[in-house]
């Protein structure tokens, strides 16, 4: 029995199934840059960046140093009651980084889920309006409020929550209104005002709208130009807070520090987590002070904003800025999209290739005419890629989208390698060689 199999068996006995979303039998042992080594010494190119966390690559020396130094200096202080310099410096930095000429404050947590949960509690407290609008296909987390705001099938077994109205995301490849992107005039936006607000929910009851500027777990869907701007204008018309969840696409992934900057909108609050601490558990919400200060003591955790995680985040921001990782994401993203579109040209099961910077989706279909989702094929491709040394996961409401969110440090050669493995994996999955 190899080491990975042994560890898998021990995990099966000891770790709750509730926290298992396993795509392949991988046990990570060491990592550096974009590469991970497993417990048996096999090396993999990680094109998921551990679900979009390792934007700076694994084990970046500056981040390792920052964490070790802070751990030696001030291993902990409970930011909720005893201040530390790092959490203050990081808050000031995050306020500067996020747009908006209004007064801002920052809240700290540990995950995208608890950050969205903060908003679920704070929105009614700040606005006196109990309803929230979110999107079909969205994923905001696993706690009660973040779960409720999501519209992803992963939430299918959940029965709690409420006060959320879900509207269709502008998923042009599968337009819910069967319109054409060139001529639709953004009908999906009109639908919200003319139908949802006219007949289902009064906008006067809606405190906030929460969106992902690129909908990741819903299938890595990039909205058409003009959509987010239109959404922002609609929110302003009705006095609805415009909130953007940047948990997966923030910190350089789309070619800008924040994904929404690609469309020039100004949210009232921004949610951040995953890459912000390069793996140290830290999340934040930055937003209008009146929203952020609405419920004193209503959502706070003992280890949130701790100095070590904040030091990791400050070093992460430095690395992204100084090493121009957002710029690299744009360059490599363009290149990768081009290579994947070449692959698509000879491969009818690839229905759509889309992305912004280094968040890319390859949508697999059984037939390009019917667009029937090829979910089983996607699972086989993901598994075969793992066997061939490339790590990635699937996304989408039907789990038929291969998601590529590699570290932002990747090179052209690594992109070429990933495309080659994908080509081979699709061929092997289709010809039953797996
Ligand atoms: N928001 C978005 C857009 C996400 O993609 C995720 C996780 O995938 C979350 C929130 C939840 O983050 P976490 O898993 O850190 O709780």
From TrEMBL:
Belongs to the class-III pyridoxal-phosphate-dependent aminotransferase family. Keywords: Aminotransferase, Pyridoxal phosphate, Transferase. InterPro entries: Aminotrans_3, Aminotrans_3_PPA_site, PyrdxlP-dep_Trfase, PyrdxlP-dep_Trfase_major, PyrdxlP-dep_Trfase_small. GO terms for molecular function: pyridoxal phosphate binding; transaminase activity. It comes from Hornefia porci. CDD domains: OAT_like. The keyword Transferase applies. This is Aminotransferase class III. The keyword Transferase applies.
